[in-house]
Amino acid sequence: MKHRPSALALTPLLLFLAVFFGAGLWFTSRGDTMGFYQLHAPVAILPALALALWIARRRGVPAMDKLLEGIGDPNIILMCLIFLLAGAFATVTKQIGAVDAVVALGVGALPPALILPGLFLMAGFLSLAVGSSMGTIAAVAPIALGVADASGLDRALVIGAVLGGATFGDNLSLISDTAIAAARTQGCSVREKFRENLKIALPAALLTLGILGFAGEASPVESGEHASAWLILPYVLVLGLAIAGLDVLVVLGIGLVVAAGMGAIFASEGYGPIQFAGDIYAGFESVVEITLLALLIGGLGALIKAGGGLAWLAAQISRLARGSTGLRSGEWSLAALASLTDVFTANNTVAILISGNVARDIAQRHGVPPARAASLLDIFVCSVQSLLPYGAQILLAASLAGLSPLALIGKAHYCWALLGVTVLFMLWPGRRRAAAAAQIA
Length: 441
Hints:
By secondary structure, the protein is mostly helical. It contains 23 helices and no strands.
């Protein structure tokens, strides 16, 4: 049974944003630098779920059935399984020393003129392989700060390069939670989204490398400590298998087994089955919050959709686009939706989970191909997230470097370049004909 469009059905989402965003402002005003992460999103969403259940029941919707249907949606469950395995892979590879091996081997090969571009590429590779911008910043930033002190480079400039590389890799990664969420919500494969994304991200990365090459002068840096290159194999294998089109659950499973084998053979302190099992569970724990939130968002989204909220929002965005059903209007609508949602949630994955169903409706109305819709969603939430002074990425990087978050915004060259290149891509006149041809094909 379909219900007419209703703005009232959207109020639970607004309540969630108000609670989550309001709590962040409150803690920040009291001097907490991580204020936006004191109230965890799975808790902040509970009042919204209660309100959504009440509204759905008032509108004659089988509220509890819809909630459980949304939580148990196959796309949501698959997403959660991928989150768990991706968390385990990131933790295991870090514990065997694979992250340290990438960083150490990379720093040792950098001449002074290429320190900033090299740090960008190093962070990009790690983030691409691990699928986590936060994990990449935590791993690379301390090494980058040592490089900055040794070479005389501005700390904000160095951390900005790491922040940009982490965003570049996270935006493109085939195992990133944002990429998975964007692809699943828009009805395309992660591989298809990757190919579409690469058309925009690669020019932005090349532009950033050019900027970083002339951004500062550095002195020579001593090479890093010795590390076995074999420890990088799990990353290379996961990237290769994922690009080849193998199912992502299988890819991550193989990556975990290979990482354990490399750790047992090449890790400096050895790596046994008990530690491997413990690290897998620690990886699960690292993604519990986003996994719980994905389940609850699935239920909330089902209630909002059943109550007519998504239909109302899609109708309003179409009206703002002056009734046009063209590709360009749809893309601008997707960009605005993704950006505004991320500004209010300060979490790129949460923003995609919240706006995903609405974005899919907009894309279908305006003829935006699913892979392009997923790409635009991921690009705008990742870019905006990495430029928010209260976002986790900048807060983490600023705390590690002892800098103000505001000092890093202007130094995140890749994030600005990605936004600029994406806007030019959306304005390019010849793409509408190409998109129409792709839709027909």
